[in-house]
Design goal:
By secondary structure, the chain is mainly α. The chain has a domain at 22-81. 54% of the residues lie in helices and 0% in strands. It has 2 helices and no strands. It has helices spanning 22-42, 47-81. It starts with 21 loop residues before the first helix and ends in a 23-residue tail after the last helix.
């Protein structure tokens, strides 16, 4: 399947939620799978319809996993780039650090 533009959930794709659009994709794929199975059980659909719908659902689940992975990877890279993580992935801030002016 060809894509235009960045993948949902990537830093270049969206600035909002980490997986914009993925929930809708999953919901739609799940509904399609349920409808195809119901039609098959009623004798008005084919097993091919069920298999295609289930394949689309599996693809949607894989895209959700990929989008979440890319989101968390981008957050980790950002944290490293701004100096809040060292090269080993450990926090690079003193334990008592907080927002400026928050010390008592």
């Amino acid at each position: 399947m060809a894509r235009c533009g960045p993948r949902p959930g990537t830093v270049g794709g969206h600035l909002g939620a980490p997986v914009d659009g993925i929930e809708e994709l999953l919901t739609s794929a799940q509904q399609s799978s349920d409808v195809a199975l119901g039609r098959y059980r009623e004798g008005v659909g084919t097993i091919v319809d069920v298999l295609l719908a289930r394949s689309a659902l599996a693809t949607a689940r894989g895209e959700e996993i990929q989008a979440r992975w890319e989101w968390h990877t981008a957050l980790a890279q950002l944290a490293h780039d701004v100096g809040t993580l060292d090269l080993a992935g450990r926090p690079n801030l003193p334990a008592d650090s907080g927002p400026p002016g928050s010390r008592r």
